[in-house]
Amino acid sequence: MKSREMYSNKSGMVDKPPSNLVIQTQLENSFDNRWAEIKIEGKNIPSRSNHVAIVFAEKLYIHGGYDVDRGILGDFYEMDMTASEQEFVWTKLNNLCDGKEIKLKSHTAVSHKETMYLFGGERGTSLGNNILYKYDFIAKTWNSVAPSNDVPKLDSHSAVAIDGKMYVYGGYMCEEAENMRDILSFDFETSKWEVVYKAGSRASEPEGRSSFAMTEADGKLLVFGGTNGEKTLNDLWTFDVKAKEWQRVDNKDTPEVVVLSLSPVVATP
């Protein structure tokens, strides 16, 4: 007779649980729910805020940002997160596009296939811009997409990638001197911009905001917090990119939050 598979726990030997429970147990044993600072080998990168971060092929990338003493930064770094014996080292990368340094803060970064896309942000004395930069992770080269007249100059906005498109929402429009309430999309294959949602199309929609957090879940945008220029916000909204509808999520007991560093870390296989 075939023997039953057994494993031990605090109460002794018991039947082997389903594989998903084994995985869950392993995960619970692997993480202790505590923060741990990564120890950097060699020289650390300069301190900064309002930068972007993204993960591709198990490497962490940091671009731009702002330093009180140095102003808007024009540097670009990577770190291999699979380093042996926890020896994490920063490597400075090429940050020139058409011979010019890409200096940005309060911009966004998303990835699609083997390319990172930087959009908007403050550069120099300009409060915002509508230039889209493309970085090839493999070739380690930069290119830019010509700005569209239909896309406002933005900073302090948010962006996520869903099904081959980058969705951009919110942020401060420097030329209009107000926060954007429309939702824009950029098609990675056709390099075309589109207004996905025009503000005022529905009775229920969020007010314009900047310096907020946005991420994606199940094909929907999730927007939380930020500022409308007069006060901080703590409302939570979802936007269905297919149905093109906003829905507010009840979160009455959540404190008001302003997000000062904007860029979700996106892991790409």
What's a quick, concise take on this entry?
With 269 residues, this protein is mainly beta. The chain has one helix at residues 19-30; strands at residues 6-9, 12-15, 52-56, 59-63, 66-67, 71-72, 76-80, 90-92, 96-97, 100-101, 108-112, 115-119, 132-136, 141-145, 154-155, 158-162, 165-169, 172-173, 178-179, 183-187, 193-197, 213-217, 220-227, 232-240, 245-249, 267-268.
Overall description:
The chain is mostly beta strands and 269 residues long. It has one domain: Kelch-type beta propeller (Neuraminidase). 4% of the residues lie in helices and 41% in strands. A hairpin with a 2-residue loop joins strand 16 and strand 17. It is globular. It starts with 5 loop residues before the first strand and ends with a strand.
- The number of strands is 26
Mean pLDDT: 85
Report the structural category. mainly beta
* Through-space gap between termini: 44 Å
Radius of gyration: 22 Å
CATH superfamily: Kelch-type beta propeller
Tell me the CATH architecture. 6 Propeller
Which SSEs are present, and which pair or pack?
Layout: E1 6-9, E2 12-15, H1 19-30, E3 52-56, E4 59-63, E5 66-67, E6 71-72, E7 76-80, E8 90-92, E9 96-97, E10 100-101, E11 108-112, E12 115-119, E13 132-136, E14 141-145, E15 154-155, E16 158-162, E17 165-169, E18 172-173, E19 178-179, E20 183-187, E21 193-197, E22 213-217, E23 220-227, E24 232-240, E25 245-249, E26 267-268
Parallel strand pairs: 3-26
Antiparallel strand pairs: 1-2, 3-4, 4-7, 5-6, 7-8, 9-10, 11-12, 12-13, 13-14, 15-18, 16-17, 17-20, 18-19, 20-21, 22-23, 23-24, 24-25
